[in-house]
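Subject: for your reference before the review

Hello V.,

The reviewers asked for a structural picture of the protein, and I figured it would be easier to keep everything in one thread rather than splitting it across files. Below is the amino acid sequence we used in the manuscript, unchanged from the supplementary table.
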Amino acid sequence: MKRRILIGVAAAAIVGGALWWQLGENETTGAATAATPEYADADTSSVTEMTMGPEDAKVTITEYASFTCPHCATFHQTTFKELKRDYIDTGKVHFIYRDVYFDRVGLWASMVARCGGPVRFFGISDLLYSQQKEWMGGDDAVAISNNLRRIGKVAGLSEDQVNACLEDADKAETLLAWFNQNKDADEISSTPTLMINGTQYGNMPYSELKAVIEEKLAE
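And here is what came back from the structure prediction:
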């Protein structure tokens, strides 16, 4: 069953060098809450879209995913690798990755992944998904925060870089607003969700995804 989105009102505080966010952590409602007006009006132009493949490709796939979503981890360790090999690397698909925040931990992970900019984003993302059970297995939020710092350093970021990224409350607010704007625009309620040339699709086996892409390429 897909994981559903529940985002609460966010408030930032820096505690012991870790960024704490009051995001909803109870995911039992099965629906996304509406974005608050300040999110709708927020300037999110500073957020970089993380992309692969040529912008002029005939097919554009936007994936909405969360670093704390087990189904997203499975998708990235299986289907995405085939998608990248067959369509992104060959220039047939323009791929856009957009973050979904179920909870504060997912936001932290996103901030670490984005810490090295577009050059390092997908490499760090792969580490986060392939090691999801390990870094999320901490006993408390501080342990998880330290695990994320470790992944950042393994990816080549300095300790000062990772700390600065995790403690950037303004960036966190902007990312949260950006997520809410995207969620509302594309009516995202679960992950992973794919927007293929503007049409929404749920998680699917690679064989089905390939058939959809081939259909779009033939249009």
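For the response letter, the relevant points are probably these. The domain at 3-29+50-218 is CATH 3.40.30.10 (Glutaredoxin). The longest strand covers residues 59-65.

Happy to draft the paragraph if you're swamped.

O.
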